[in-house]
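We emphasize that the prediction below concerns an isolated chain of 125 residues; any contacts that depend on oligomerization or on bound cofactors are therefore not represented. The input was used exactly as deposited, without trimming of termini.
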Amino acid sequence: MSLQQYWELTERKLEFIRKRESVKYPEYWIPAKTHKILDNIWLDIEAYNYSTGYATEKHNDLLERIIGQFSKFNDLVADFFCGSGTTLTVAQRLGRKWIGCDSSEVAISVAKQRLLDANYELVKL
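Result of the prediction step, given as a token string:
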């Protein structure tokens, strides 16, 4: 019986880790997981958005995933190259405190306008 047949016979209670084209069967089998490990290759989400016209503007969904997964409510999120301000607007919406800065006057202008349009209070230091 092949591993594939065994897998189907056991009602798919095990899953394989690696299957290479050059190998006929999966190489390693492990117990089924209840949680999926978040990989660093995210093909299910857009990387960029172009709502502000800023060339490297990240997509809101991408920043929501990052901030939501790696910080808690009321944590401080810092973006030292904030560009169009996506990180800052998402952090605010998710209930995080935030600090943003950039060395580009264009980026600062775009981010500032974006934050003002969202009615966020700005403090310039």
